[in-house]
What we know:
Elements: E1 4-6, E2 9-11, H1 17-21, H2 23-34, H3 38-58, H4 62-72, H5 89-106
Antiparallel strand pairs: 1-2
Amino acid sequence: MIGMNIQGQTADTHICGICNAVPEISDLMYKSIVMGDMEKAVKYKSLLMKIKGLAREFQVEGLSIVKAILRLRGLNVGNPVPPNKGLSDNEMRKLREILESILSDAGVNIEFKRIF
């Protein structure tokens, strides 16, 4: 979002929370932009948006998905604070399967921890 203006403050860019959970894809997107390969950059952005959209699928806030992904990666960042809810073990399994598919599409291999 180039030049966005929020409450009188401007910024040249925006970092999506999901990019903190799967920085490998955002790094690939950035490198594609630098190399002028906008087709790949758009592909990586689309994959990030798929991950971001999982919050809607699991009916949770985006922060809950970020925390769940970080937990799958072996980082214990705690549970979401109420009224936000976390994911059940079943939902974590499903999230892991979906992420593995999306990451495979990006050519990214991440070893997830067994947490359930």
